[in-house]
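User: I'm writing a tutorial on reading structure tokens. Could you give me a worked example: one chain, its sequence, then its tokens, then a sentence or two explaining what the tokens reveal?
Assistant: Sure. Here is the example chain.
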Amino acid sequence: LGKPSSSGIRVSGIRVDPSSTSSSPSPSLSSARHFFGGATPSHADFNVYHHLSNALLVEPRCVEEVSGELVEWMERMEALPSMKSYLEERPDLVGIGENPGLLDKAGRLVTQRNPEGIAWLKEDGCFTFDNPYSV
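And here are its predicted structure tokens:
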């Protein structure tokens, strides 16, 4: 896990201060550590980004209320060319708490209750129900 110190417990770059009134960890993402693993993003960064991005859909201010450093980190993640391209093309998550689904760039909604079953996301950001891998 982490090692206790006079300033709290460190776990993978996150300092948890047990004397803090907040239960929220504050990330240590100094200029030398732009990402959780160092100077370049790792799988961990993309995983954490995914969860925080989803949390923002439910609570739009949840990240900024925890840490300005986390906001800056998310901005660095979003500025990565491949991430920026992905974010522009990915479907929008809608219907949270009711019937969650994905809305593609053409406005077609796919949900877990979709009677057509499985859908594939094409390079143009739209869904298709025709299996692109069938012969």
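What the tokens reveal: The chain has a mean pLDDT of 77. Residues 49 and 74 are 7 Å apart (CA to CA).
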